[in-house]
Amino acid sequence: MIKLKGVIFVAFQKISIISYLNIYQILIAVITGIIGAFIFLFLFPAGAISTAMHQVLELPGPGAGIGLIFGPFIILLSLLTYNFIGKHGIIFITCSVFAIFHSILSPIVYPSVKTVGSLGPLFLRISAIVLLGIVLEICIFILKDRKDLIKYPLSAAISNVICLLFYWLLIFPGNKGWVKIENIPILLGVTILAAIIFGGAIPLICKRAICEKQ
Prior knowledge:
The chain is mainly alpha-helical. The chain has one domain. The chain has eight helices and no strands. The termini are far apart.
């Protein structure tokens, strides 16, 4: 337990923004987070995620959209930015900026529909994505000595599951209701698989492609 606390403490020291990242690296992460929020709103307009999850794929809820699309998209965006900068702290900044802009803009852009970004209080919506970023950041740091083939998919899966659990426990009960026990296995399976494929595999492939060109 003491060793784990020590690892987490060192991780937070390593991702400290002060004196670790320069202004240009921080700016890139901020811009990426903002652009990512707009891209997500454009790709998935009001009701699109819910329709795709429950009417097309016929997945149970609540949480299918979080695990299959929302979480993996943020993870993909953050890890691609991390690949480009190559420093810890970038993931946290990217997720935090995305969280703020998406959570604020979503109910403004789609005021008549409760989408992923407008469910629950603003503070909780932002906190869910920030938590995802913190968990992803810590996982990437703790697994830094592991092969990318393990580090990326595992970090993506863990952070995506944590985000879904946050929604299940703190956001969905106030609007969509509690998840049914019998729906948990399939939703967790979809969440893990989507994170591994979109959040882990794609950034890994991009990283290797860049390394080969260099």
